[in-house]
Automatic annotation (TrEMBL):
Keywords: Disulfide bond, Protease inhibitor, Signal. This is TIL domain-containing protein. One of its GO terms (molecular function) is peptidase inhibitor activity. Residues 23-82 form the TIL domain. InterPro entries: Ser_inhib-like_sf, SerProtInhib-TIL_Domain, TIL_dom. Residues 1-18 form the signal peptide. It comes from the Eukaryota. The keyword Nucleotide-binding does not apply.
Amino acid sequence: MNFFLPLVCVFLINYATASEIKCGPNEYLNTCASYCDEVPTCQNPYPIRDPNIACPAVCVERCTCIRGYIMNNGKCIRRERCPKC
């Protein structure tokens, strides 16, 4: 019984946190995003993770741009609409 109560508490906290995440336009809630993956942006559309840095195999929940969109100033826009330098 001593083990059961903390387990229920952890489940409820995780459930409450997940249900509070609201994604913006052109985004979806990725329930198992990689902990180490960089988010593609207009400034860095093809980020490469450093292979020398260990990455834990942990899922994180975060909003991710839908296919064909990329992050720019906190919003997902069409890739071709990225500002030109």
